[in-house]
Amino acid sequence: MSTSPELVGDSRRDQQIKEIVCDVLEMEPADVTDTSLFKEDHGADSLRAIEILAALEREFDITIDQAELSRMVNLNGVRAVVAEAEASR
Fold first, then answer.
1. Which residues contact 13 (CB under 8 A, 6 or more apart)?
2. 45 carries an active-site annotation
3. For residue 4, what pLDDT is reported?
4. What own/partner pairs with CB < 8 Å and gap ≥ 24 does 47-54 have?
5. Cβ(25)–Cβ(32) under 8 Å?
6. Could you please report the per-residue DSSP string of 6-24?
7. pLDDT category of residue 8 using cuts at 50, 70 and 90
8. CB 73 within 8 Å of CB 38
9. Most buried of 25, 52, 55, 88, CB within 10 angstroms?
10. Active-site residue among 10, 34, 45, 61?
11. 83, pLDDT greater than 50
């Protein structure tokens, strides 16, 4: 079974996103799931959310509108916002 290059790229990007989030939240990757909530489950504040946004912009050379912060509540939300920002460049 072969893996398409797109899936490999997405998987790598997803891993990079998780590493960035865990670094900013100062958490172990095993403690952060796709659906765990940054604020409620991990105690992140609004400053951490802005740090995540800025780190993602630097890492992926994208621009994310701060209005998207309301969607960036967990890894799934962050991945969706990054994918949309990449598609719109």
1. 60, 79, 82
2. yes
3. 38
4. 48/24, 51/24, 52/20, 52/21, 52/24, 52/25, 52/78
5. yes
6. HHHHHHHHHHHHHHHHHHH
7. low
8. yes
9. 52
10. 45
11. yes
